[in-house]
Amino acid sequence: MSSTNRIVLVVGLVSSLTGLCLVALPSVASLVSLSGVARTAPIALVGMLSLLLAARYVAGEISSSKARHDEQQTRSTEFPTPKHRPGYEHPGVAFARRLGGIEWTDRREEDPKERLELRAELRQAARTVLSRTEQWSRTDVETRLDDGTWTENPQAAAFFADDVVPSLSPWHRVRSLCRSEPVFARRARHAVSELASRFDGNDVSPEVSAAAQTSLDDDLTVTTRSFWDGREGAEAREVSTGRTRGVAAAALGAAGLGIVTLRPALFLLTVFGITVYGYARAVSLPTQTVSVTRTVSEAAPDPGQEIEITVSVLNTGDETLADIRVVDGVPTGLIVSEGSPTFTTALRPGKEATFSYSVEAVAGAHTYDPALVVTRDVAGVRKRERLQQSSETTITCQIREHPVSGNGLQQKTTVLPGQAQSRTKGAGVEFHSVREYRHGDPLSRIDWNRKAKTGEFTTVDFREPHLETTLLVVDARAEAYLESATDCTEPVVRQSVTAAYSIASQLLADSTPVGITALSPQPCWLSPGTGDVHRRQLRELLLRESAFSWDTPDGEFDAIAALREINQRASLETQILFISPLCDDEAREAVRRLDAYGYTVSVLSPDPTVSTASTRTCGVGYASLRRQLRLKELRNAGLNVTDWDPSEPFSGVISRE
Amino acid sequence: MALSAAGLSVLVLAVTSPAAALLSLLAGVVLAGGLTRGSRRILDGAGGIYVLALLVGGLGDAGSEVLLLTAIASILAWDIAENALSVGDHLGRETDTTRLEVVHAAATLVVLTVGAGMVFAIGTAASGGQPITAVVLLLVGVIALVAGLRR
To answer: Is the per-residue pLDDT at A466 higher than 80?
Structure first.
């Protein structure tokens, strides 16, 4: 308590006591009989003071509520909503973000970087698309882009033909006042929709989809742990809910008005307000003594199976808890299919309340976060938030294996040992070369026919049959955690993991050594090997390793350093199968780099931009177009790239090869 | 539930002061709006209008019993609404919260009634002609108390 505070309180106490004395002994009061200004001045003064104080509190309240509101905007203080998965990034977001980078104020800059970059990129794409779809010569394409005759759509044509900062007619200026989107951005949308529709023949609308927009905007706190991480590290915390501050201001206001107008009713109101306020200050929070127990109907379910979770809340203390709110720590991957993982109740000491809900099992090892328990006192003036640890609950659900048939997995990745052509020559069946006899060569490899003809000893070399090891590299960077453009809540990384598991078990069944690693901030490595133990290890790794979890990884990630590490660990004979949605340039760079290191690289790319809707939005169209160009570039570089629509069965993709 | 309390406050005020009743009615409507929109700011606005209604009532000829009853009803209405919002925020719409809310409303009602009863008793006991100086001094004490506690 500060010294001014103490002085204020002392003055208040003295003044109250004197007042009480005067009430008790009216005769004393009659001794000091004031009149005139001396009588009215204190009344007016105190009234004004009290009104001023009330006004100050109200103003302070308004500004603090504003500050709280702003804080909520910047930091997510929202309560966790464990019913859902976190929003993974929509493939259309990349384009929406680029458009968002274009501002009206760019116009004033000498050389608006964002705009120039976007145009250069789209022009490059336009060149490829048009020369492929339109049978125009290279110069034809350039002139048509320059004069805007490549399309019927005036907006799209103007995107390349007009200035980066378009000069607006007065009419456009007026119209632009009521729109927030710069003309350049609108033209970019039209150009993309035009290019994307030409490229794959389906109509692409020039709108940015609502899904992409919401995915760009909101950032849901889903798990109880992530909610808590946004706060200080303490295990429990007490907060005042600030519900009664208004009452004090109101009471002071009433007092001020009352003294000025001399209405007894208003005084009563003041006293009432102060009573309520005082009660709220005095009331104490019951010590929180709650235990939470969780039981799961099936700890190792099959994918898609419904599991019932029963949670019981027990008041272990000896005080009644009037207001308990429980949010269970449902792990990221699980979606609540029935019921609700949140619960409220009031509990007398020793009583227990139970609630239950169902979740749908999906592949992975899901460990429950601690439940978040909020208790408030009866009046709801103070609350205590606490992460309630309970016994660890883990639901383990095996990855469903896609049946992979045949051995046409990759052109270069072997399935059977001995199929690969190794770089070493020696014994074998396939002819490699003939060389001079050297002492010690096996008799069976001497070319006896030539010996008979010419008298010289020569030795035949064959290609050695070779056991090629395969390394599966799963792209699990944050950029690869995209949701599919169709309404799917599963990140595309899960498809990659399932595919990796299927391929690995197929290769292992043929006793080809398989290793696995992830391109992710969470390190993860399993050296190539064979056998049952290795297979089990691989399965456990795909299930439990945090690199393959349902959470989008965060933190800085240096892809080049990670690739260098792979290069150091894997031998050059290893064939690499890179599994990635290829939705950003870093992924493409990674493939090129692995190729440059000298590995035989194949790419399997699950496509997140496939949309079931008849018309696609331009965000998705842009992502799809860029991705297709990337695949094309890799194919041109001589890599084996397989495009996989995850809604198709996996075996179909493999046998298509 | 909040709305019925709001209705009560209008009813009680209507007996004496039409202007205050109108304000109170407005506050009730704003409260309902805040509840449907789920906005705490609108709710706070409604609280402010309630205070205005009470002050207007007090400045008018409303008796102290009527005023206290209105105050109880107003605070109750705001409190229940605020609690409902907070529960909704925390737990989502699908959770069953009846028990919690009933307990909360009942507790608040008890607290408010006891408080108002005490205040009313003091009011009737001290309704003699108190010297104005005493009242002023007491008021200074109250202001100091509030100012000190708020820090």
So the answer is: no
Residue A488 touches chain B, beta carbons under 8 Å: no
Query: Domain total for chain B?
Result: 1
Domain around B120: 1-150
Cα A601 to Cα A481: distance, rounded to the nearest angstrom: 22
Q: Give the residue ranges of DSSP H helices in A88-209.
A: 93-100, 113-133, 138-147, 154-161, 170-177, 183-200
Q: How many domains does chain A divide into? A: 4
Tell me if A342 and B51 make a contact (CB, 8 A cut-off).
no
Q: How far apart are CA A356 and CA A351, in angstroms?
A: 17
User: Is residue A443 located within the same domain as residue A482?
Assistant: no
One domain, residues A101 and A181: yes
Query: Does A304 share its domain with A195?
Result: no
ipTM of the predicted assembly exceeds 0.95: no
What would the two tokens of residue A565 be?
């590490």
The span from the CA of A644 to the CA of A642, in Å, is 6
- As a whole number of Å, the CA-based R_g of chain A is 36
Contact B90 A79 (CB under 8 A): yes
Same domain, A479 and A592: yes
The residue ranking higher by pLDDT, B15 or A605, is A605
Task: Say yes or no for a CB contact (<8 Å) between B138 and A16.
Answer: yes
A377 shares its domain with A434: no
A280-314 pLDDT, tens per residue? Answer: 777 777 776 788 888 888 888 888 888 898 999 88
Q: Which helix (H) or strand (E) holds A294?
A: strand A290-296
Of B58, B89, B133, the CB nearest to A257: B58
**pLDDT (0 to 100) of residue A410:** 44
β-strand pairing of A470-475 with A306-315 = unpaired
Tell me if chain A has a CB within 8 Å of the CB of B133: yes
User: Going edge to edge, which strands form the sheet with A369-376?
Assistant: A236-240, A382-388, A369-376, A321-329, A342-347
Backbone angles phi, psi at B106, to 5 degrees: -60, -45
The pLDDT value recorded for residue A452 is 92
The shortest C-alpha distance from A286 to chain B (Å) reads: 15
What are A537-559's pLDDT values in tens digits?
A: 998 888 888 888 888 887 788 88
**Residue B131 with chain A: CB contacts under 8 Å:** 22-23, 26, 29-30
**Domain span including residue A159:** 93-216
Whether residue A109 is found in the same domain as residue A150: yes
Residue A621 covered by a domain: yes
Highest averaged pLDDT of the listed ranges A25-29, A232-236, A384-388 = A384-388
